Amino acid sequence: MLAVHEDRIAAAVARLGAENAFEVLARARQLEAQGRRVVHMEIGEPDFDAAELRAMTSAINVLRSTGAAVVLLTAVYYQQPEQADGSAWPEDDPQRVDRYNALLRQAAAEAGRGVTVEDLNAHLDPGGHYVQYINGVNVRYADGIHVDAAGAKFVAPWLLTDVARIAAENRAGLPLP
């Protein structure tokens, strides 16, 4: 999160809880494997999505309470090493990430002015699928989840330029997207 609070000039960048949703699913799958009955509430199901949207809205409201312009980053696709049984992890399904990002965009749209969504996913996963290398540069750690220093360097010019513009517009009292 980037936040500058002097003179109520503020910009906040937040990526809200994508991993939390996936951790819950992983724990539910563990309990099922132990023979326990689990009622699934996961991303893409109406009750879960409604709760996730409320959590996003709450986080946006906290960030905006300081007068900050809020910048939300979409989640990137994941491609972890396979599970012990050879299958892919559920959270590696691009449709799940797409659904999370749709919820993020919905929360931003419902919040109105002063909340911007920056599409990190489009920059690090061009073509709509997981990408390990961009222009011959490895932009991800071997875990298939996290962005490495080269990936950060790749997105920094785009992202920091946009955040600086949004902060300047907020500082000048200009209408924000």
List the helices and strands and how they pair.
Elements: E1 11-14, H1 18-33, H2 46-64, E2 69-73, H3 94-111, E3 115-118, H4 120-124, E4 133-134, E5 137-138, H5 149-171
Parallel strand pairs: 1-2, 2-3
Antiparallel strand pairs: 4-5
Helix pairs in contact: 2-3
Describe the protein in words.
Helix 2 packs across helix 3 (94-111). 46% of the residues lie in helices and 10% in strands. Mean pLDDT is 83; it is low at 1-18. It is mainly α and 177 residues long. The chain has helices spanning 18-33, 46-64, 94-111, 120-124, 149-171, and strands spanning 11-14, 69-73, 115-118, 133-134, 137-138. It starts with 10 loop residues before the first strand and ends in a 6-residue tail after the last helix. It is built from five helices and five strands, in the order E-H-H-E-H-E-H-E-E-H. It has a single domain, classed as Rossmann fold, CATH 3.40.50. It has a three-stranded parallel sheet with strand order 1-2-3, with helices on both faces. Strand 4 and strand 5 form a beta hairpin. The relative contact order is 0.16. The chain is flat.
Name given to the CATH architecture = 3-Layer(aba) Sandwich
Terminus-to-terminus distance: 19 Å
For the sheet with most strands, the description reads: 3 strands, parallel
Beta content: 5-15%
Radius of gyration: 18 Å
State the helix count. Answer: 5
Strand order of the largest sheet: 1-2-3
CATH C-level class is Alpha Beta
Structural class: mainly alpha
Number of domains in the coordinates? 1
Name the overall outline. Answer: flat
